[in-house]
Amino acid sequence: MHGFRVFALACITAAASLFGPSIAGAQSFLTVTGCDTVSVNGVTYGRVSFDIHNFSDTVMMQVAIFPISHQAPDDTCHVLQLGSPPEWLGYMNADGGAVWASSSKAADVAPGGTAHGFQAVLSRPLCCYTVQLFGVFVEPFASMNMCMECSLMSPVQPGSWGRLKQAYR
User: Fold this and answer.
1) Are strands 114-122 and 126-134 parallel, antiparallel or unpaired?
2) Which of 43, 82, 119, 146 gives the lowest tally of CB atoms within 10 Å of its CB?
3) Angle formed at CA 35 by CA 31 and CA 38, multiple of 5 degrees
4) CA-CA distances (angstroms) from residue 61 to 24, 35, 72, 104, 168?
């Protein structure tokens, strides 16, 4: 039953991405809660942590992010890795987006609730996505465009100004 539920939600997401978003939410239901850096194959990238708030009257079972095309010439914005809250499963899409689906009825987010602990490692410091929330129907019940930013910090070593000047003499 669990496998069928995940498969059905993945099919719903794929169909909805073909037909576009349905309802634009007035409130921002995605809140970025943190930003740090991780190394993927020896390259440093930004990892965004975020929560999803369900302001609707529909039970939320799935979250999907789809890259907004034409953000920049030769756009390379995509999810490299992802993290999921407990009892949620995450999948990366070939288009650079990702889908998170609750793996149990207990993990579904009731109206007015919040799911904590989503993470996405992004290929660029600033990536813009269409974020959609799904319940049991094919069409998303909430959709919005959102840019997630995780500016990379420059690595530094502890020391003094005098030591820095000495290194360049």
Assistant:
1) unpaired
2) 43
3) 140
4) 18, 25, 32, 9, 57
Dihedral sign (CA 19, 14, 46, 119)? positive
Q: How would you classify the pairing of strands 114-122 and 79-83?
A: antiparallel
Task: Report in angstroms the alpha-carbon separations of 131 from 1, 41, 66, 79, 91.
Answer: 27, 27, 7, 13, 15
Average model confidence (pLDDT) for the chain? 79
- What is the C-alpha to C-alpha distance for residues 60 and 25, in angstroms, rounded to an integer? 14
Residues 134, 60: Cα–Cα separation, whole Å = 6
Number of domains comprising the chain: 1
Confidence of residue 26 (pLDDT cuts 50, 70, 90): low
- According to DSSP, residue 107 is labeled G
- CA angle (49 as vertex; 94, 18 as ends), nearest 5: 30
| The pair of three-digit structure tokens given for residue 50, joined into one six-digit string | 């975020």
Give, for 66, the enclosing helix (H) or strand (E): strand 62-67
Q: The domain that contains 153 carries what CATH number?
A: 2.60.40
Question: What is the span of the domain harbouring residue 14?
Answer: 2-167
